[in-house]
Amino acid sequence: MEIVMKFNKLFLFATFLLLISCNGAIVYEEIDLQVETEAWIVQEEGAHSFQMIDENGIKNTWNLREENNYYSESGSAFLLIPTRKTMREMHYQKFSSTILGDFSINADAGFSDGNAWVSFNMPNLSIDFDAVTYDPIRLYLSPNSGESFSWYVDDNDPPFQFQIVTDYEINGKTFTEEVAVFELTSRTEILEPNDIVKFSFSKDIGLIYLELKSGLKYFRI
Amino acid sequence: MKILFISFLIASVGFCTPKCDESNLTDAYTFPENMEEFIPYENQDQFTLVHNSATEIQFEVFRNSTVETASCDHCCDYYTYENEELFVISDYPFYDIQFYINADDEERFNYGITIGREYFSLNENMQMVDSVEINNQYFHEVFKLKSSSHSEEYEREVDSMYFNYSIGILKIIEQNGDSYEIQ
Prior knowledge:
Chain A is mainly β.
């Protein structure tokens, strides 16, 4: 019996040594953003400062305030020994308007077993979508009223419409790059009059259309 | 030895720092008696600015009058000062506009206006014009104020404003050339 216990301890110790020695064989992967996904990030320097005009002729200026292109690290371990390390690329931009607030775009390369995704974060709502299938993943409403609402891909009855279109026409202009078009179709009762309910966002150029709950519309100049 | 020395220093600071058994009011800064002559708006006053596109934007003013307390670091004494805040609100998406007025020594006062990210200071260096025509009306004793902010030129949205103590905001001029004039 004593010999059996000693053998078990020896076996466990040998296994431990083997695992430690395998540390050099940690799986490392780097997931880069694909060009098509990163195209949602505003690339043109000239578009880093832009204006939108409302139906009454009043202009709003947006300026790029923050930009980060980096790799986010994550990993897994067995018995505290790292076995996998993943570096996935992310690209983030934040634009700011003194009157309408901030919006940001985040492109995330995703994990090896899934697709990349993109997030549009407006002052009162944010939407994530799959960068490959263009399916919406998550919606989060966060108006100043304090009442919030979330929708996830597994939920029924999305309170919004979201699609990616080409040759998008707005206010007499046609945008040939892919344009993400978002419209909140319900749950608007928790929003305030100056909260955003519709927006359109073009690859490479950025924000091209906004509509507030009050009905006021803004067009990219 | 080093640890003992550092501990001694810390203890000395702790014991030698004066403890405030009671705080003393050293000063009470008040506005001059005629201060209301310098504040153009009463609570719930309304006014309209007209954009160069002819769009009219209505504003309402909310005033908050308080007496604030301030003290210096590492002393027990404190002083009070009269304070006026004016919030200029519009239902239309517009810059946040606020007035900050507080009393200082010898009945002087500090007076500033923020429009969005820009700050306009009313001080002894500002220039006054006897008469200015704005929106087909003549206004007197008008100050043209430039932003005191440190923001970069390309980021500045509001360039200047016209103001007088009797009417208030007369004109706002944006960096892009657009303007809003009192109706």
